[in-house]
Write a structure and sequence with these properties.
By secondary structure, this protein is of the alpha/beta class. The protein folds into two domains: about 240 residues, Spore Coat Polysaccharide Biosynthesis Protein SpsA, Chain A (Alpha-Beta Complex), CATH 3.90.550.10; about 210 residues, Up-down Bundle (Four Helix Bundle (Hemerythrin (Met), subunit A)), CATH 1.20.120. The chain is about 50% helix and about 15% strand. The protein contains 17 helices and 16 strands. The strands form four sheets. Strands 1, 2, 3, 6, 7, 8, 10, 11, 12 and 13 form a ten-stranded mixed β-sheet that branches. A two-stranded antiparallel sheet has the order 4-5. A two-stranded antiparallel sheet has the order 9-16. The longest helix is centred in the C-terminal third of the chain and has 37 residues. The chain is elongated and about 85 Å long. The N terminus is likely disordered.
Length: about 475
């Protein structure tokens, strides 16, 4: 279960610099929530992370624009936690408004210490940033709180060991309407995030953004180009161009939300999943604006799935298959909800184990029905054949995943074709649905078993060849 940690509030005075500015401090409760830890999130895990503190420049209304149910600032803080950041100081000329938006407890950022500090009106200056610079920090991430960032960009930026500014030299067409207002320099559009060194900062004075822009032009900052970052995402199983964009005006808000929804779609899909994807995206575009959590969606999906098991076992194949088809859509909602709202957690990984349990229960329930009804006296034989083939197939897939850090379905075009039609739950359910329409459900069950046998027979030699090629390439390197 997902737990929500309360936030503790206190008020102090900033006396260190003698400016008398109010400070609103927010930090997690002492018993911090470990439900969502950056150490367990493959999207933002980085063994070489060098920077874990940041200053967020947040102003209203830009930072408080809501996209897919959460504000841009809240989204940024959740992403920072997943990328290994421990502390974030928010600098704002409207600290009360910012604090009010963050006042509600939020477990997805429960491990991130957040402090809201006030500043005067006008352009943000280097002096104001230095005023709140964490003691002992040499390198620090300075980031705009009114900008949405792909987690991969923040993670890569956090590993830099020198002054670096995030730029984009070639925004792709889907991003262009959202970043059109951002000025472009010879390095590209400055995305609003930079790793700054304290020694350099203490030698500056004046408006921060103007100084950063000039420093980038003169080579004081190394550019980290978003357009040059790797496209392939291990987590998403496809090429996804890292994105960023400032808080959009109302006219572009729907476009921004659509980009976030599309970015949550995984690749390497089977044929039924291609059909499910538009339905999932339509549902999630509405669900993400509610308080429904990914865990609640997982629970609902499993309730429907186990209801299908009961219907299969009792011979209500039409209704059982109808629920199984619905599960095909529901099963994709929890993951998308978690990715879109940056609510990934340890418990989310349990979903795959729960999926495996109800899948086996479906095939076992069908075998029980066909055996007890006399429609297929050898039903348990085909059940054993199906489960054995799936186990062998899992070994082949697992060997590739451990070696290549990617699914066997992503090795090449041939493998993607196999994934498209190969044996797996969605394909089996569609085969069963066709069998019921043709009034031959028992034969459909037999087809399911042999379909998985063929799939395993394809994957075993493919995995063996890929492992041999990998070992050969390693010997060549040595």
């Amino acid at each position: 279960m997902v737990t929500t940690e309360p936030l503790l509030f206190a008020t102090t005075e900033n006396l260190s610099k003698g400016r008398g500015q109010g400070e609103l401090i927010m930090s997690p409760a002492l018993n911090g929530c470990s439900t969502c830890s950056s150490k367990t999130d493959p999207v933002c895990q980085s063994a070489e992370s060098m920077v874990d503190e940041c200053i967020v420049l947040a102003e209203s209304p830009g930072a408080l624009v809501k996209l897919c149910g959460i504000s841009v600032l809240e989204r940024l803080l959740r992403s920072l936690e997943r990328c290994g950041f421990k502390r974030a100081v928010i600098l704002s000329s409207a600290p009360d408004v910012i604090s009010q938006d963050l006042a509600q407890s939020s477990w997805p950022r429960a491990q991130l210490d957040v402090t809201v500090r006030s500043r005067g009106t006008g352009a943000i200056t280097v002096e104001q940033v230095l005023d709140i610079w964490p003691q002992g920090a040499e390198l620090l991430l300075v980031v705009r709180g009114d900008t949405v960032f792909d987690d991969r960009l923040l993670r890569t930026l956090a590993t830099q060991k020198k002054q670096t500014a995030l730029v984009d030299s070639a925004a792709p067409p889907p991003l262009q309407p959202l970043v059109a207002s951002v000025p472009k320099s010879i390095r590209g559009k400055f995305c609003g995030a930079a790793i700054v060194h304290s020694d350099w900062a203490w030698r500056q004075n004046g408006p921060l953004e103007e100084i950063l822009g000039n420093a980038l032009e003169h080579g004081d900052f190394a550019p980290l180009d978003a357009a040059a970052q790797p496209l392939y995402s291990v987590t998403m199983r496809r090429e996804v161009r890292p994105f960023w964009f400032p808080a959009p005006p109302p006219a572009n808000q729907k476009l921004a939300e659509q980009l976030l929804v599309n970015s949550a779609q995984k690749g390497a899909l089977d044929f039924p999943a291609w059909v499910h994807a538009p339905l999932e995206n339509f549902l999630i575009s509405h669900l993400c604006k509610t308080s429904i959590t990914p865990n609640q969606l997982t629970l609902f999906c499993n309730m429907v799935a186990w209801a299908a098991t009961i219907l299969f076992a009792t011979g209500h194949l039409i209704w059982g298959t109808a629920l199984a088809l619905i599960v095909g859509v529901l099963d994709g909602l929890d993951g998308k909800q978690a990715r879109i709202k940056v609510e990934t957690s340890k418990s989310g990984k349990l979903e795959h184990w729960l999926d495996g349990l109800f899948e086996i229960s479906w095939w076992t329930a069908l075998a029980y029905h066909f055996q007890s009804s006399g429609e297929l006296p050898q039903a348990y034989y085909y059940l054993f054949l199906l489960l054995l083939a799936e186990a062998v197939d899992a070994i082949a897939k697992g060997s590739i995943l451990l070696t290549y850090r990617k699914l066997i379905d992503e090795l090449g075009p041939f493998d993607r074709v196999v994934r498209f039609v190969g044996g797996r739950r969605n394909i089996y359910v569609w085969i069963l649905a066709v069998g019921i329409l043709l009034a031959v459900p028992a034969k459909a069950f037999i087809t399911m078993a042999w379909w998985e046998v063929v799939t395993a027979a394809v994957h075993i030699p493919r995995a063996a060849w890929a492992l041999w090629a990998f070992r050969k390439s390693c010997r060549g390197i040595r």
